[in-house]
Amino acid sequence: MKRIALLLIAAALAAGVVTAWARTSTRADAEPALQGAAEPASLSVRDVRGVSPYTETRNEPPPRLFVDDPLPEGLAQGIVWIQWRAENVNVVPVFGKGGVGVSPRVGHLHVHVDDVGWWWADPSGINTIDIAGLSEGPHKVRLELVNANHEPFPGQSRTVTFTIPKGASLSLNHSHSR
Asked: CA-CA distance, 129 to 71, in Å (whole number)?
């Protein structure tokens, strides 16, 4: 009985040593796609999530806007879904001159469709613009990253062009029967 207990203890110690060694290895056996990339454990929370909302941020890097082409699955149905993301700015429903000086920085998007004279503000932060009811044919949408006072961040405007295919149908008529 003592012999079995000693063997179990020895096995547990060996497993612990192997586990500790594996965690501290240099990861030479890492997958090729991961080699050269920063290990997730080496990134701080600030590196991934950005600054804390509880401290003043000085010398913030400039905001950046990234925009993808519309999703083809939506276009086939006559719906435009444009995914986007912003860095170094929190997209939130804060408006007016008083919001310009807050830290961390806040802003929202202005959405312009086909160069018409109007636009709408999108402070939702859900990272997808959703437009329906456009006619068949070519269109363009310009997304503009702006501060709380609706002033554009320099160089942070992106335009996507796309075509609503012939025959793409979206039923905008809703019937409510009693």
From this structure: 11
Helix (H), strand (E), coil (C) string for 2-50: HHHHHHHHHHHHHHHHHHHHHHHCCCCCCCCCCCCCCCHHHCCHHHHHC
CB atoms within 10 A of CB 21: 9
Confidence at residue 35, expressed as pLDDT on a 0 to 100 scale: 47
Give the CA distances from residue 38 to residues 12, 32, 82, in Å, rounded to whole numbers and listed in that order: 32, 13, 30
Structural domain boundaries of the chain?
A: 1-52, 63-164
Query: Does pTM top 0.70 for this prediction?
Result: no
CATH architecture of the domain formed by 63-164: Sandwich (2.60)
